[in-house]
Amino acid sequence: MSGISNKELFLQHVAQTSAAPIGLEMKNASGIHIWDVKGKKYTDLISGFSVCNIGHSHPHVVKAVQEQAAEYMHLIVYGEFIESPQVQYAKLLTDHLPPALNCVYFTNSGAEATEGAMKLAKRITGRSKIIAFNNAYHGSTQGALSVMGGEYWRNAFRPLLPDIVHVDYNDDAVFELIDSSVACVILETVQAESGITVPRKEWLQAIRKKCDEHCVLLVFDEIQAGFGRTGSLWAFEQFEVIPDILLLGKALGGGMPLGAFIADKKLMSTLTYNPVLGHITTFGGHPVSCAAGKAALEVLLQGEYIQQVHQKGKLLQTHLQHPAIQHTNSYGLWMSLKFKDEMTNQQIVHQCVKNGLVTDWFLFAPDRLRIAPPLIITEAELTEVCATIIMSIDEIVNES
Ligand code: PLP
Protein backbone atom coordinates (compact mmCIF):
# COMPACT_ATOMS: atom_id res chain seq x y z
CA MET A 1 0.00 0.00 0.00
CA SER A 2 3.04 2.29 -0.05
CA GLY A 3 2.64 5.53 -2.01
CA ILE A 4 -1.01 5.97 -1.08
CA SER A 5 -1.47 8.85 1.32
CA ASN A 6 -3.49 8.59 4.49
CA LYS A 7 -5.80 11.23 3.03
CA GLU A 8 -6.59 9.00 0.03
CA LEU A 9 -7.08 5.99 2.30
CA PHE A 10 -9.31 8.09 4.55
CA LEU A 11 -11.51 9.07 1.63
CA GLN A 12 -11.61 5.53 0.20
CA HIS A 13 -11.90 3.30 3.24
CA VAL A 14 -13.27 5.35 6.11
CA ALA A 15 -17.01 5.87 5.67
CA GLN A 16 -17.79 9.47 4.80
CA THR A 17 -20.93 11.32 5.79
CA SER A 18 -19.80 14.73 4.62
CA ALA A 19 -18.89 15.77 1.10
CA ALA A 20 -16.36 18.25 2.49
CA PRO A 21 -14.66 16.92 5.63
CA ILE A 22 -12.07 19.23 7.25
CA GLY A 23 -9.63 16.45 6.33
CA LEU A 24 -6.58 17.62 8.29
CA GLU A 25 -4.24 14.84 9.37
CA MET A 26 -3.47 15.38 13.03
CA LYS A 27 -0.47 14.07 14.92
CA ASN A 28 -0.84 15.02 18.56
CA ALA A 29 -2.81 17.22 20.92
CA SER A 30 -2.18 18.77 24.30
CA GLY A 31 -4.15 21.35 26.30
CA ILE A 32 -5.95 23.69 23.91
CA HIS A 33 -3.73 22.81 20.94
CA ILE A 34 -3.64 20.20 18.17
CA TRP A 35 -0.69 19.72 15.79
CA ASP A 36 -0.97 18.33 12.27
CA VAL A 37 1.52 15.96 10.67
CA LYS A 38 3.34 18.91 9.08
CA GLY A 39 3.90 20.44 12.51
CA LYS A 40 1.34 23.24 12.15
CA LYS A 41 -0.30 24.19 15.44
CA TYR A 42 -4.05 24.76 15.77
CA THR A 43 -6.01 26.16 18.70
CA ASP A 44 -9.05 23.99 19.33
CA LEU A 45 -11.96 26.40 19.49
CA ILE A 46 -14.63 23.71 19.77
CA SER A 47 -13.12 21.18 22.20
CA GLY A 48 -13.79 18.24 19.86
CA PHE A 49 -17.48 19.26 20.03
CA SER A 50 -17.59 19.98 23.76
CA VAL A 51 -15.70 16.84 24.76
CA CYS A 52 -12.32 18.19 25.80
CA ASN A 53 -13.55 20.69 28.42
CA ILE A 54 -10.26 20.34 30.32
CA GLY A 55 -8.23 20.30 27.12
CA HIS A 56 -6.54 17.44 25.31
CA SER A 57 -4.59 14.66 27.01
CA HIS A 58 -4.51 16.18 30.48
CA PRO A 59 -1.74 14.37 32.42
CA HIS A 60 -4.12 13.37 35.23
CA VAL A 61 -6.46 11.76 32.67
CA VAL A 62 -3.63 10.09 30.73
CA LYS A 63 -2.29 8.60 33.97
CA ALA A 64 -5.75 7.29 34.94
CA VAL A 65 -6.16 5.70 31.48
CA GLN A 66 -2.71 4.08 31.57
CA GLU A 67 -3.18 2.71 35.07
CA GLN A 68 -6.65 1.35 34.36
CA ALA A 69 -5.60 -0.19 31.01
CA ALA A 70 -2.77 -1.98 32.82
CA GLU A 71 -5.14 -3.21 35.55
CA TYR A 72 -8.01 -4.42 33.37
CA MET A 73 -9.99 -3.33 30.34
CA HIS A 74 -13.17 -5.11 29.28
CA LEU A 75 -14.21 -7.93 31.61
CA ILE A 76 -17.90 -8.63 31.08
CA VAL A 77 -21.10 -6.91 29.89
CA TYR A 78 -22.33 -3.85 31.79
CA GLY A 79 -23.60 -4.34 35.33
CA GLU A 80 -22.47 -7.88 36.23
CA PHE A 81 -19.14 -7.47 38.02
CA ILE A 82 -18.38 -4.73 40.52
CA GLU A 83 -15.85 -2.61 38.63
CA SER A 84 -14.22 0.04 40.76
CA PRO A 85 -13.87 2.74 38.02
CA GLN A 86 -17.64 2.61 37.36
CA VAL A 87 -18.57 2.59 41.02
CA GLN A 88 -16.22 5.41 41.96
CA TYR A 89 -17.27 7.57 39.01
CA ALA A 90 -20.98 7.03 39.70
CA LYS A 91 -20.33 8.07 43.32
CA LEU A 92 -18.44 11.23 42.30
CA LEU A 93 -21.13 12.22 39.80
CA THR A 94 -24.05 11.65 42.16
CA ASP A 95 -22.22 13.50 44.98
CA HIS A 96 -22.45 16.53 42.69
CA LEU A 97 -26.07 16.06 41.64
CA PRO A 98 -29.36 16.69 43.47
CA PRO A 99 -30.51 13.77 45.72
CA ALA A 100 -33.12 12.55 43.19
CA LEU A 101 -30.42 11.97 40.57
CA ASN A 102 -28.65 9.21 42.46
CA CYS A 103 -28.35 6.26 40.07
CA VAL A 104 -26.22 6.19 36.91
CA TYR A 105 -26.64 3.91 33.91
CA PHE A 106 -23.43 4.24 31.89
CA THR A 107 -23.69 3.89 28.11
CA ASN A 108 -21.29 4.05 25.15
CA SER A 109 -22.49 7.37 23.77
CA GLY A 110 -24.89 10.26 24.08
CA ALA A 111 -27.30 8.70 21.60
CA GLU A 112 -27.45 5.52 23.65
CA ALA A 113 -28.17 7.59 26.76
CA THR A 114 -31.11 9.18 24.90
CA GLU A 115 -32.35 5.72 23.89
CA GLY A 116 -32.09 4.49 27.48
CA ALA A 117 -33.95 7.52 28.86
CA MET A 118 -36.80 7.19 26.37
CA LYS A 119 -37.13 3.48 27.19
CA LEU A 120 -37.07 4.24 30.90
CA ALA A 121 -39.79 6.90 30.54
CA LYS A 122 -42.00 4.52 28.57
CA ARG A 123 -41.42 1.71 31.03
CA ILE A 124 -42.20 3.86 34.10
CA THR A 125 -45.30 5.60 32.75
CA GLY A 126 -46.69 2.88 30.50
CA ARG A 127 -47.21 5.66 27.92
CA SER A 128 -45.62 6.16 24.53
CA LYS A 129 -46.05 9.83 23.62
CA ILE A 130 -42.89 11.95 23.79
CA ILE A 131 -42.70 15.72 23.45
CA ALA A 132 -39.51 17.05 21.86
CA PHE A 133 -38.42 20.37 20.34
CA ASN A 134 -37.68 21.81 16.93
CA ASN A 135 -33.94 22.28 16.33
CA ALA A 136 -33.08 19.73 19.04
CA TYR A 137 -30.31 17.17 18.60
CA HIS A 138 -30.19 14.12 20.86
CA GLY A 139 -28.19 11.65 18.73
CA SER A 140 -28.35 9.78 15.46
CA THR A 141 -29.72 6.33 16.28
CA GLN A 142 -33.33 5.76 15.26
CA GLY A 143 -34.96 6.56 18.61
CA ALA A 144 -32.80 9.63 19.14
CA LEU A 145 -33.34 10.64 15.52
CA SER A 146 -37.10 10.45 16.10
CA VAL A 147 -36.85 13.23 18.69
CA MET A 148 -34.42 15.27 16.60
CA GLY A 149 -36.06 18.55 15.69
CA GLY A 150 -35.78 18.87 11.93
CA GLU A 151 -37.67 17.09 9.15
CA TYR A 152 -34.75 17.42 6.72
CA TRP A 153 -32.67 15.17 8.98
CA ARG A 154 -35.43 12.67 9.82
CA ASN A 155 -37.26 12.20 6.58
CA ALA A 156 -34.93 9.83 4.72
CA PHE A 157 -35.00 7.37 7.63
CA ARG A 158 -38.74 6.99 8.15
CA PRO A 159 -40.57 5.13 9.57
CA LEU A 160 -39.23 6.32 12.92
CA LEU A 161 -40.83 6.17 16.36
CA PRO A 162 -44.54 7.02 16.40
CA ASP A 163 -46.14 9.36 18.97
CA ILE A 164 -43.46 12.04 18.90
CA VAL A 165 -44.70 15.62 18.99
CA HIS A 166 -42.36 18.51 18.17
CA VAL A 167 -42.89 22.05 19.33
CA ASP A 168 -40.82 25.24 19.26
CA TYR A 169 -38.26 25.70 22.03
CA ASN A 170 -39.21 28.51 24.43
CA ASP A 171 -42.81 28.42 23.10
CA ASP A 172 -45.68 28.30 25.60
CA ALA A 173 -47.58 26.02 23.18
CA VAL A 174 -45.86 23.11 24.92
CA PHE A 175 -47.97 23.58 28.06
CA GLU A 176 -51.18 22.57 26.25
CA LEU A 177 -49.51 19.37 25.03
CA ILE A 178 -48.38 18.04 28.40
CA ASP A 179 -51.14 15.77 29.69
CA SER A 180 -51.60 12.25 31.06
CA SER A 181 -50.95 10.65 27.66
CA VAL A 182 -47.31 11.79 27.68
CA ALA A 183 -44.37 9.66 28.85
CA CYS A 184 -41.75 12.38 28.86
CA VAL A 185 -40.69 15.79 27.69
CA ILE A 186 -37.12 15.75 26.40
CA LEU A 187 -35.11 18.91 25.88
CA GLU A 188 -31.61 20.30 25.95
CA THR A 189 -31.22 22.54 29.00
CA VAL A 190 -29.53 24.98 26.62
CA GLN A 191 -30.21 24.10 22.99
CA ALA A 192 -26.92 23.61 21.18
CA GLU A 193 -27.32 22.97 17.47
CA SER A 194 -29.78 25.81 16.88
CA GLY A 195 -26.74 28.03 17.49
CA ILE A 196 -27.14 28.18 21.30
CA THR A 197 -30.66 28.98 22.44
CA VAL A 198 -31.14 29.75 26.12
CA PRO A 199 -34.51 28.85 27.64
CA ARG A 200 -36.58 31.35 29.57
CA LYS A 201 -36.33 30.40 33.22
CA GLU A 202 -40.11 30.72 33.80
CA TRP A 203 -40.76 28.56 30.72
CA LEU A 204 -38.56 25.76 32.01
CA GLN A 205 -40.09 26.02 35.48
CA ALA A 206 -43.62 25.93 34.04
CA ILE A 207 -42.75 22.77 32.07
CA ARG A 208 -41.56 21.18 35.31
CA LYS A 209 -44.84 22.11 37.02
CA LYS A 210 -46.96 20.74 34.17
CA CYS A 211 -44.96 17.50 34.13
CA ASP A 212 -45.52 17.10 37.87
CA GLU A 213 -49.26 17.69 37.51
CA HIS A 214 -49.57 14.90 34.94
CA CYS A 215 -46.86 12.48 36.19
CA VAL A 216 -44.84 13.10 33.04
CA LEU A 217 -41.08 12.63 33.26
CA LEU A 218 -38.82 15.55 32.43
CA VAL A 219 -35.59 14.62 30.63
CA PHE A 220 -32.76 17.15 30.33
CA ASP A 221 -30.06 16.52 27.76
CA GLU A 222 -26.80 18.08 29.01
CA ILE A 223 -24.62 16.04 26.70
CA GLN A 224 -23.28 19.27 25.23
CA ALA A 225 -24.27 21.81 27.92
CA GLY A 226 -22.87 19.91 30.90
CA PHE A 227 -19.53 19.85 32.68
CA GLY A 228 -19.11 23.57 33.27
CA ARG A 229 -19.65 24.86 29.74
CA THR A 230 -22.43 27.23 30.86
CA GLY A 231 -20.74 28.48 34.05
CA SER A 232 -22.14 25.92 36.48
CA LEU A 233 -21.30 22.24 36.58
CA TRP A 234 -24.82 21.48 35.28
CA ALA A 235 -26.73 24.04 33.23
CA PHE A 236 -30.01 23.22 35.01
CA GLU A 237 -28.66 24.70 38.26
CA GLN A 238 -28.98 28.19 36.76
CA PHE A 239 -32.66 27.66 35.95
CA GLU A 240 -33.50 26.07 39.31
CA VAL A 241 -35.26 23.14 37.68
CA ILE A 242 -34.30 19.53 38.38
CA PRO A 243 -35.08 16.90 35.73
CA ASP A 244 -36.24 13.35 36.46
CA ILE A 245 -33.68 11.98 34.04
CA LEU A 246 -30.40 13.64 33.11
CA LEU A 247 -28.47 12.74 29.94
CA LEU A 248 -24.70 13.11 29.89
CA GLY A 249 -22.04 12.33 27.29
CA LYS A 250 -19.16 14.04 25.50
CA ALA A 251 -17.07 15.60 28.35
CA LEU A 252 -18.35 12.81 30.64
CA GLY A 253 -15.59 10.50 29.37
CA GLY A 254 -12.74 13.03 29.55
CA GLY A 255 -11.86 12.22 25.93
CA MET A 256 -12.88 8.55 26.02
CA PRO A 257 -16.28 7.34 24.77
CA LEU A 258 -18.92 7.41 27.51
CA GLY A 259 -22.54 8.43 28.02
CA ALA A 260 -25.02 8.11 30.87
CA PHE A 261 -28.64 8.50 31.84
CA ILE A 262 -29.13 9.31 35.48
CA ALA A 263 -32.32 9.06 37.55
CA ASP A 264 -33.60 8.10 40.97
CA LYS A 265 -32.84 4.49 41.98
CA LYS A 266 -36.57 3.73 42.30
CA LEU A 267 -37.19 4.79 38.70
CA MET A 268 -34.08 3.08 37.39
CA SER A 269 -34.99 -0.21 39.06
CA THR A 270 -37.90 -0.64 36.61
CA LEU A 271 -35.25 -1.76 34.12
CA THR A 272 -34.53 -4.77 36.34
CA TYR A 273 -37.93 -6.50 36.02
CA ASN A 274 -40.43 -7.47 33.37
CA PRO A 275 -38.37 -7.70 31.30
CA VAL A 276 -35.17 -8.35 33.18
CA LEU A 277 -32.22 -6.58 31.51
CA GLY A 278 -34.38 -3.64 30.40
CA HIS A 279 -31.34 -2.09 28.75
CA ILE A 280 -28.31 -4.09 27.69
CA THR A 281 -24.91 -2.80 26.61
CA THR A 282 -21.60 -4.61 26.23
CA PHE A 283 -19.19 -1.71 26.42
CA GLY A 284 -21.28 0.95 28.20
CA GLY A 285 -19.36 2.16 31.26
CA HIS A 286 -16.07 0.78 29.98
CA PRO A 287 -13.62 0.81 32.91
CA VAL A 288 -10.99 2.83 31.02
CA SER A 289 -13.61 5.41 29.97
CA CYS A 290 -14.92 5.66 33.54
CA ALA A 291 -11.39 6.07 34.93
CA ALA A 292 -10.71 8.83 32.36
CA GLY A 293 -14.02 10.57 33.01
CA LYS A 294 -13.55 10.54 36.78
CA ALA A 295 -10.04 11.97 36.43
CA ALA A 296 -11.33 14.71 34.10
CA LEU A 297 -14.11 15.66 36.50
CA GLU A 298 -11.61 15.81 39.36
CA VAL A 299 -9.50 18.27 37.35
CA LEU A 300 -12.57 20.36 36.53
CA LEU A 301 -13.71 20.48 40.16
CA GLN A 302 -10.27 21.20 41.61
CA GLY A 303 -9.51 24.15 39.32
CA GLU A 304 -11.24 27.51 39.09
CA TYR A 305 -12.30 26.79 35.53
CA ILE A 306 -16.06 26.80 36.03
CA GLN A 307 -15.95 29.95 38.17
CA GLN A 308 -14.07 31.75 35.35
CA VAL A 309 -16.49 30.77 32.58
CA HIS A 310 -18.76 33.84 32.69
CA GLN A 311 -15.81 36.26 32.75
CA LYS A 312 -14.23 34.52 29.76
CA GLY A 313 -17.60 34.51 27.97
CA LYS A 314 -17.84 38.28 28.48
CA LEU A 315 -14.36 38.70 27.03
CA LEU A 316 -15.52 36.93 23.85
CA GLN A 317 -18.51 39.23 23.59
CA THR A 318 -16.33 42.32 24.02
CA HIS A 319 -13.70 41.32 21.47
CA LEU A 320 -15.85 39.69 18.81
CA GLN A 321 -17.31 42.80 17.20
CA HIS A 322 -17.32 43.13 13.42
CA PRO A 323 -19.82 44.61 10.94
CA ALA A 324 -20.06 41.19 9.20
CA ILE A 325 -21.24 39.54 12.44
CA GLN A 326 -24.99 40.04 12.26
CA HIS A 327 -25.86 38.55 15.60
CA THR A 328 -24.35 36.52 18.42
CA ASN A 329 -25.84 34.02 20.86
CA SER A 330 -23.87 32.99 23.89
CA TYR A 331 -24.10 31.34 27.25
CA GLY A 332 -21.04 30.73 29.39
CA LEU A 333 -17.98 29.89 27.32
CA TRP A 334 -20.11 28.98 24.37
CA MET A 335 -20.97 31.27 21.49
CA SER A 336 -22.29 31.41 17.95
CA LEU A 337 -21.53 34.16 15.45
CA LYS A 338 -24.14 34.68 12.73
CA PHE A 339 -23.03 35.77 9.26
CA LYS A 340 -25.18 36.81 6.33
CA ASP A 341 -25.44 33.30 4.89
CA GLU A 342 -24.11 29.74 5.01
CA MET A 343 -21.54 30.35 2.26
CA THR A 344 -19.96 33.30 4.09
CA ASN A 345 -19.79 31.29 7.29
CA GLN A 346 -18.18 28.32 5.52
CA GLN A 347 -15.55 30.61 4.03
CA ILE A 348 -14.79 32.17 7.42
CA VAL A 349 -14.62 28.75 9.09
CA HIS A 350 -12.09 27.63 6.46
CA GLN A 351 -10.13 30.86 6.79
CA CYS A 352 -9.98 30.35 10.59
CA VAL A 353 -8.62 26.83 10.00
CA LYS A 354 -6.02 28.26 7.61
CA ASN A 355 -5.09 30.75 10.34
CA GLY A 356 -4.70 27.98 12.91
CA LEU A 357 -8.12 27.89 14.63
CA VAL A 358 -10.31 24.78 14.56
CA THR A 359 -13.97 25.79 14.45
CA ASP A 360 -17.16 24.69 12.71
CA TRP A 361 -20.84 25.47 12.11
CA PHE A 362 -24.08 24.27 13.75
CA LEU A 363 -26.43 21.54 12.46
CA PHE A 364 -29.50 23.78 12.41
CA ALA A 365 -27.60 27.03 11.91
CA PRO A 366 -25.09 26.60 9.06
CA ASP A 367 -24.73 30.40 8.91
CA ARG A 368 -23.26 30.48 12.45
CA LEU A 369 -19.65 29.89 13.51
CA ARG A 370 -19.15 27.75 16.64
CA ILE A 371 -17.03 28.81 19.61
CA ALA A 372 -16.70 26.37 22.52
CA PRO A 373 -13.02 26.26 23.55
CA PRO A 374 -11.63 24.11 26.35
CA LEU A 375 -12.52 25.78 29.66
CA ILE A 376 -8.83 25.83 30.57
CA ILE A 377 -8.10 28.48 27.93
CA THR A 378 -6.64 31.64 29.51
CA GLU A 379 -7.94 35.17 28.98
CA ALA A 380 -4.72 36.06 27.12
CA GLU A 381 -5.20 33.07 24.79
CA LEU A 382 -8.84 34.00 24.25
CA THR A 383 -7.89 37.57 23.35
CA GLU A 384 -5.44 36.21 20.77
CA VAL A 385 -8.10 33.84 19.38
CA CYS A 386 -10.56 36.73 19.00
CA ALA A 387 -7.97 38.75 17.05
CA THR A 388 -7.45 35.78 14.69
CA ILE A 389 -11.19 35.40 14.17
CA ILE A 390 -11.57 39.10 13.36
CA MET A 391 -8.57 38.88 11.00
CA SER A 392 -10.12 35.83 9.27
CA ILE A 393 -13.44 37.65 8.85
CA ASP A 394 -11.63 40.66 7.39
CA GLU A 395 -9.73 38.47 4.95
CA ILE A 396 -12.98 36.94 3.64
CA VAL A 397 -15.09 40.06 3.65
CA ASN A 398 -12.40 42.19 1.97
CA GLU A 399 -11.88 39.52 -0.69
CA SER A 400 -15.54 39.50 -1.79
N1 PLP B 1 -27.32 15.27 22.63
C1 PLP B 1 -26.66 16.40 22.31
C2 PLP B 1 -27.14 17.71 22.85
C3 PLP B 1 -25.55 16.35 21.46
O1 PLP B 1 -24.91 17.49 21.13
C4 PLP B 1 -25.12 15.08 20.98
C5 PLP B 1 -23.95 15.00 20.08
O2 PLP B 1 -23.55 15.94 19.43
C6 PLP B 1 -25.82 13.94 21.35
C7 PLP B 1 -26.91 14.07 22.18
C8 PLP B 1 -25.41 12.59 20.84
O3 PLP B 1 -24.21 12.18 21.42
P1 PLP B 1 -23.29 11.08 20.67
O4 PLP B 1 -22.73 11.72 19.45
O5 PLP B 1 -22.26 10.71 21.70
O6 PLP B 1 -24.19 9.94 20.35
UniProtKB/TrEMBL annotation:
<dbReference type="InterPro" id="IPR005814">
    <property type="entry name" value="Aminotrans_3"/>
</dbReference>
<dbReference type="GO" id="GO:0042802">
    <property type="term" value="F:identical protein binding"/>
</dbReference>
<protein>
    <submittedName>
        <fullName>Aspartate aminotransferase family protein</fullName>
    </submittedName>
</protein>
<dbReference type="GO" id="GO:0030170">
    <property type="term" value="F:pyridoxal phosphate binding"/>
</dbReference>
<dbReference type="InterPro" id="IPR015421">
    <property type="entry name" value="PyrdxlP-dep_Trfase_major"/>
</dbReference>
<dbReference type="InterPro" id="IPR015422">
    <property type="entry name" value="PyrdxlP-dep_Trfase_small"/>
</dbReference>
<dbReference type="InterPro" id="IPR050103">
    <property type="entry name" value="Class-III_PLP-dep_AT"/>
</dbReference>
<keyword id="KW-0808">Transferase</keyword>
<keyword id="KW-0663">Pyridoxal phosphate</keyword>
<comment type="similarity">
    <text>Belongs to the class-III pyridoxal-phosphate-dependent aminotransferase family.</text>
</comment>
<dbReference type="InterPro" id="IPR015424">
    <property type="entry name" value="PyrdxlP-dep_Trfase"/>
</dbReference>
<keyword id="KW-0032">Aminotransferase</keyword>
<dbReference type="InterPro" id="IPR049704">
    <property type="entry name" value="Aminotrans_3_PPA_site"/>
</dbReference>
<dbReference type="Pfam" id="PF00202">
    <property type="entry name" value="Aminotran_3"/>
</dbReference>
<dbReference type="GO" id="GO:0008483">
    <property type="term" value="F:transaminase activity"/>
</dbReference>
